[in-house]
Design a protein that fits this description.
The structure is a single chain. It contains six helices and 24 strands. By secondary structure, the protein is α+β, with helices and mostly antiparallel strands. The protein has two domains: about 190 residues, Thrombin, subunit H (Beta Barrel), CATH 2.40.10.120; about 190 residues, Protein Transport Mog1p, Chain A.
Length: about 425
């Protein structure tokens, strides 16, 4: 189709106007970054965790002033060593001028990975923890100390809240790096939207919503508040309450199920779980497998090697027309005897102890293994791995695994019972 000259000129003018507007917007956004850095950089500090015996840095993160009396918000995981080994570690801040000052732990929120510390200082400026009006696509500026390279700023985009979490977490399109944890992610005018918490790389990062930090600050600065005598005991109390709530509705009746071959299996234990599946059918392989998995984006940091709130489920259906019954039984046994959970330091957990029994059903027998290891520093909490397999003696079977981290024995028992009761199959 041929356009009239007038229409061509109109489109050309419109295109130039759009290009001009886009260029102006890009230039404006680029100009905002140094302004944000200049106006708010001094309100962000580096948090160093020092090993008292050697006076050497053991870890570092970031934090930011939130009152004129020296209160600072950071992540729980930044200062977690103070909680686990208060006699071995101490904390200090390094401000924009390079001056070091000791900080004291005031309050923790393990569930939302937040902490408030306080220093004997009176910052001239500090961030207000309000309730910013923010929409998906808004520009954010994250401040922190990546890899101890000095204060840095990262531009990114607010992409709303994650869907598969029990508690809110912001999806931030920006390249957070180690050391930026605990720093603020702010709008151009300095309003705090969230607190840097973690990243998965490739500009996929996460923030704790600012309202959680505001609640912790209000609690930690309220009249009559006193820090707990043992932050380790306080952390354990919070973890227990968290897993009670988290697991309350897991596999609650009616349990959602998925059919894979002759097997009916539990799926999506709660609305905040994400499930996916795949199958492997290759000509050179003498068997077929179908995998179905469910998990969440939730986890609760306890220590570098420990997490609570991790619930995952994996079903694998195996079948073969080529393997004889003995070779298929060997394959089946290998899948049933897989690795037990994630590695963890011996100082944090005991070894796994397992018990195995047969669960008889009208349709057949389910072989089930229940394995758990105890948390040494948090009485009453365990990691649990449940693995089960249908025993029908043929050349088809299912191996299913449920993994729970940082849970009470009572909750582990209840969730396991619901899980196994939801597994059925046709003869």
């Amino acid at each position: 189709m041929t356009l009239a000259p007038a229409r061509r000129r109109l489109l050309l003018v419109a295109g130039c106007m759009l290009a001009s507007t886009t260029a102006a917007a890009a230039q404006e956004a680029a100009g905002a970054t140094p302004e944000v850095f200049r106006r708010f950089g001094a309100q962000v500090v580096k948090i160093e965790i020092v090993e008292t015996g050697s006076a050497a840095k053991a870890s570092l993160g970031s934090g930011f002033y939130v009152t004129g009396r020296g209160h600072i918000v950071t992540n729980y995981h930044v200062i977690s060593q103070l909680v686990h080994d208060p006699d071995r570690y101490r904390a200090q801040l390094v401000d924009a001028a390079g001056a070091s000052k000791p900080v004291r732990l005031l309050a923790i929120d393990v569930v939302h990975d937040l902490a408030v510390v306080v220093a004997d200082t009176t910052p001239g400026q500090y961030f207000q923890l309000g309730a910013p009006d923010i929409a998906q696509g808004d520009r954010l500026y994250s401040l922190g100390h990546p890899h101890d390279l000095g204060l840095s700023i990262v531009e990114g985009t607010y992409n709303g809240l994650l869907q598969h979490t029990l508690y809110p977490k912001i999806h931030f399109t920006g390249s957070l790096n180690s050391g930026m944890s605990g720093g603020p992610a702010i709008l151009r005018d300095g309003r705090v939207a969230g607190i840097n918490v973690s990243t998965e790389g490739n500009q996929v990062s996460f923030l704790v919503p600012v309202d959680r930090a505001r609640e912790l600050l209000q609690r930690g600065t309220a009249a009559g508040y006193a820090p707990p005598k043992s932050f380790l005991l306080e952390a354990g109390t919070q973890i227990h309450a968290y897993q009670d709530r988290y697991l309350d509705g897991i596999f609650a009746s009616p349990v959602r199920t998925v059919t894979l071959g002759p097997y009916t299996l539990p799926t999506q234990p709660a609305p905040f779980f994400n499930c996916w599946a795949d199958a492997m059918r290759e000509k050179e392989q003498p068997y077929e497998s179908i995998d179905h998995q469910c998990s969440t984006d939730d986890y609760l940091f306890i220590s570098a090697d420990q997490f609570s709130g991790v619930v995952s489920m994996h079903h694998r259906v195996l079948s073969s027309d080529e393997l004889n019954r003995f070779r298929f039984a060997s394959l089946y046994e290998q899948n049933f005897a897989g690795a037990d959970g994630e590695d963890a330091a011996e100082e944090d957990v005991t070894r796994y102890r397992c018990g195995t029994r047969n669960v008889r059903r009208a349709e057949g027998t389910l072989r089930a293994a229940f394995c758990l290891r105890r948390y040494r520093k948090f009485p009453g909490l365990y990691d649990v791995v449940v693995r089960a397999a249908a025993l029908d003696g043929g050349r088809q079977g299912v191996v299913t695994t449920l993994t729970l981290s940082g849970v009470s024995y009572e909750n582990a028992e209840r969730v396991t019972r619901r899980y196994l009761e939801a597994i059925t199959w046709t003869k």
